[in-house]
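Please check this chain.
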Amino acid sequence: MPVGKENGGSVLSVYLLGCVDFESALVLQRRLQYEVSGNRSQAALILCEHPPLITVGRSGSRAHILCEPEELRSRQWRIRWLNRGGGCLLHMPGQLAVYPILPLDRLELGLEEYLARLEQVALRVLDDFGIGAARQQCMGVWVNDRPLAALGIAVRDWVSAYGMWFNVHVPLDQFRLVRWGGRQQPPMTSVEKERRGPLRPGLFRQRLIEHFEAVFPFARTSHFAEHPALHRTKQRRVLVS
């Protein structure tokens, strides 16, 4: 079912990127937000990874990072405070960042409905890989008693930014040091661990895009591997098969 009453002529631009420095990805999101604000028949979806760093949203605090400043320096983990929903999150290659830049007013979506639809995308794609997950309100998507995907958004002029982060294949021991939902929350798990078998990351990304397009239908979708505003890092493309 189309989202909103006037979906004719709407275009979703999907950017399939590799490992992108977080600040560069943030600049790209802000530029796309500006463009979508001026032309609400447009929308964008960014898929990328980030080199290691910690971001802290409006529900997070320094107390949710369970290592001292000396260890942060030795690991070269920078902390970036953000005006987005959600808590603290460790980013690294092997984690898929999903950033929808959508005109929520044109799509006739309030914030709760938008978050519910993002969660629906997450649950659908995990089900494709035999992972039975459940939503935890304001806490992301969990498998049994451990979080697998985190959700956190920001909205400006009714255009969304940020979105979801999936641990696809990451070293889980490091996630014990950063807690998304609070100091006592269990550490995160990953798609690879819960699937208990090999995973082709490109297939995971493809299925995610398919479910996103089903939950957020647009008249036309275009795919890109670059954006002129983007400064790419020299990291390898971990999730590109």
Observations:
- The longest strand covers residues 146-156.
- Confidence is low (pLDDT under 50) at residues 1-6, 232-241.
- Helices lie at 22-38, 69-75, 111-128, 191-195, 201-215.
- The chain has five helices and eleven strands.
